[in-house]
Amino acid sequence: MAAALDAAWPDVELSGIVSTRYGHAVPAGRIDIIEAGHPVPDAASERAARRILEAVSGLTADDLVIALMSGGGSATLALPVAPLTLADKQRITNDLLASGAGIGDMNTVRKHLSGIKGGKLAAAAAPARVCTLLISDVPGDDPSAVASGPTVPDSTTPAQALDILDRHGIAIPAELRDRLAAGAAVAPPGGDHECRIIGSAALALGAAADAAKNMGYAVVNLGDAIEGESRELGRVMAGIARSARTHSEPVAPPCVILSGGETTVTIGAEGAGRGGRNTEFALAFAIALRGAQGTWALACDSDGIDGTEDAAGAIVTPDTLARAAAAGFEPSASLKKHDSYSLFHATGDLVVTGPTLTNVNDIRVVLLG
What we know:
Elements: H1 2-8, E1 16-21, E2 31-36, H2 43-55, E3 64-70, H3 73-76, H4 86-99, H5 103-112, H6 120-125, E4 129-135, H7 158-167, H8 174-182, E5 193-199, H9 201-214, E6 218-221, H10 230-247, E7 255-261, H11 277-289, E8 295-301, E9 313-316, H12 320-326, H13 331-336, H14 340-347, E10 350-351, E11 362-368
Parallel strand pairs: 1-2, 3-4, 4-5, 6-7
Antiparallel strand pairs: 7-11, 8-9, 8-11, 9-10
Helix pairs in contact: 5-7, 7-8, 10-11
C-alpha cells in the first residue's frame, strides 16, 4: 500500500512511516519502513508507535494524513499505556493468544492498553484531515477492529476489556485494573475523518468463487465471518463435504466450498508443538474426512504466514492420513498436542509462499471432484 501511494503521487510533497512485521518490508520510496514484532509486540513496535505519533504532531487543518491499515497493526504498533510496561503488554498478549479469545475480544483489550489504538492516533493528528484506507482481516469488516482502530472511534469500554481479561483468567497489574474499573473515557478522534475498506476477505472469497465457477464448479461460499476453534471448524467443513458427496446438499459435486474468517487455537496446560490456525484446521479436516476419495482441501493465511510459522498453511488430499502414518505420525496425537505443522512438513503438504504483502485473513477451500 505504501509503495503504491508513493508511486501514485510523485509530484506531491509526501513523507511517511510504516510499521510491518519482520521480513515483510519492501522499498516504498519516500516512506520509511520499520520492521517490528508480530504477533507479540517488541521494542521496535513501541519505537514505531512513538515515531508515527511524532509524525502527526503539530499538523494543521491544511494537512492530510493518509492512514494505511491492515491486519497485524495491533502488534507492530504498540504503545503501552501507563502503568503498563512493554514486558507487561507482551505477557498479556501471549496469554490472550493462548486463551482462545476471538480477534474481536483481543482487539478490545488492546485498545484499552494502548496509547495509540482506539482512535488515539487520529486524535493526535487533529485538526488535520485523516483518510484511512483499510485492508480488513477481521470477520464482518468492522473498521474499528482492523489493527485495533488507531484512527477510528472506539465503541468499546474499559469495563468490557476488564471483563474479557477476567473471563480468560489473565492477570494484570492492580493499578491497571483500577483504571479499567473506573472506566476512564477516551477522547474521540478530532478533525475531518473518512474511512474506506479497499480490500477484505469477502472480496477475496468472491474472486475465488468466480474463478471456481469459470472452471465449471458449483460454489458454496460460507462467508468471511467464521470464528471458533480451528479443529472444530475442520470437523464441520468435513461434515459439509460428506453431505455434498452423499446427498448433494448443500451442493452437488463437482463443487467448491469456501470459507473465510479467523479461527482460534486454545492451548491447554500441556503446551503445544508447531502449527497455526490453518494447519490445525487442515489436520482436523483430514481426520474427520477419514480418507474419503475425491475430496481435497486448502487452508492458508492470506499474508503467507500461518501464526508464527514459515508456511501459509497446508493442503489435504485423500491419502493424507495414510502418508502421515507412513512417515511415523499418528494424526490424532499430533492434533491433540497442536503439532500439525510437523505432520504436514513430513508429508510435504505445507504451502510456503513467503510474505504476500497483503492480509485479508484465512481462506479455506474444499474441492469435491
